[in-house]
Specification:
Blueprint (H helix, E strand, L loop, with lengths): L9 H22 L4 E4 L10 H9 L3 E2 L8 E4 L5 E5 L7 E7 L8 E6 L4 H12 L9 H7 L3 E4 L2 E3 L5 E6 L8 E7 L10 E7 L5 H12 L4 E3 L11 E4 L4 H23 L22
Antiparallel strand pairs: 1-12, 1-13, 2-3, 3-4, 4-5, 5-6, 6-11, 7-8, 8-9, 9-10, 10-11
Helix pairs in contact: 1-6, 2-3, 2-6, 3-5
């Protein structure tokens, strides 16, 4: 019998080619680096932005910005969510994540500074593209379990007192929003110059805030190269037991998992079978 499998379209072929070239470029970058375990996470520096952009591309987000511009704008397949990365931004926010309002859900906005580790934003993005969890702990429970100190009902800080998270009221009439800041110590106080910030407006879904704070407080180290930019001199770096190849393999495995999840989510549901017709009892023909 002839093979009836449809041939791949030009778009599918181009997408596969682009994916392979992107992974090859990522592998080439990290093959030349000796990975170092870097802790704490809030001082690890920005890392590789492709931890974010590759994950969203694997979920079907497409680039809508000029391919020759350093600015990257990715948009979800339903056009509701968008992510902007601008390394030439004149403001303190290099990353901006937006959700448009719908008939049933409000719009929301989040932004992240230059030195926010890309892995933290990647964890948030992975949670955004996945189905919302039925139950999830609050950010405070996550932070407390990781050894962070609760300052008040609506604030906490890292053990080194350099990173703070606060559910802050801008004014008495506004719903509180999430503010996360890492600051240098200034004359023995934690109120020195800001290193980086993250901000979630009051309408941001709580499970996304929890995902970011869980990744932030995770004691597991992040991998950085010997000459990668870090956020503060007090960061601790040790040679990692992971090889460069293992770092690339972990990245590839994550992207494969995102693709499988995306296919499952968007797979057409089978139509329900039509209900069988009710049986009727034939009536005998009346005799004339």
């Amino acid at each position: 019998m002839p093979d009836r499998t449809p041939a791949p379209s030009l778009d599918d072929t181009q997408c596969a080619t682009d994916t392979l070239s992107q992974l090859a470029a990522f592998a080439d970058t990290h093959a030349r680096r000796m990975p170092f375990d870097t802790t704490p996470r809030h001082l690890a520096g920005p890392g590789d932005a492709r931890h974010v952009t590759h994950g969203l591309a694997a979920a079907g987000w497409t680039r809508t910005s000029d391919p020759l511009s350093p600015q990257i704008v990715l948009r979800s397949h339903d056009h509701r969510h968008s992510l902007q990365f601008d390394p030439q931004s004149t403001t303190s926010a290099w990353w901006r994540l937006r959700a448009e309002a719908t008939d049933t859900e409000p719009g929301w906005y989040a932004e992240f500074g230059e030195l926010v580790p890309a892995e933290l934003i990647g964890s948030l993005a992975d949670t955004l593209i996945a189905p919302p969890p039925r139950e999830q702990p609050t950010p405070w429970r996550v932070l407390s379990s990781a050894g962070w100190l609760l300052d008040a009902p609506d604030a906490a800080h890292a053990p080194d007192a350099l990173c703070h998270i606060e559910l802050r009221h801008v004014d008495h009439h506004d719903t509180p929003s999430w503010h996360i800041e890492t600051r240098r110590h200034d004359h023995g106080t934690p109120a020195g110059p800001r290193i980086w910030h993250a901000w979630f407006d009051s309408r941001t879904p709580s499970h996304l805030v929890t995902a970011f704070t869980a990744a932030l407080a995770d004691p597991a180290p992040l991998q950085r190269g010997m000459y990668d930019r870090i956020a503060h001199h007090s960061v601790v770096q040790r040679p990692s037991p992971l090889t460069s190849q293992q770092v690339v393999e972990a990245h590839t495995a994550r992207l494969d998992a995102i693709r499988r999840m995306t296919r499952t989510i968007h797979r057409p549901r089978p139509r329900a079978a039509a209900a069988p017709a009710k049986a009727t009892t034939a009536q005998p023909t009346a005799r004339r």
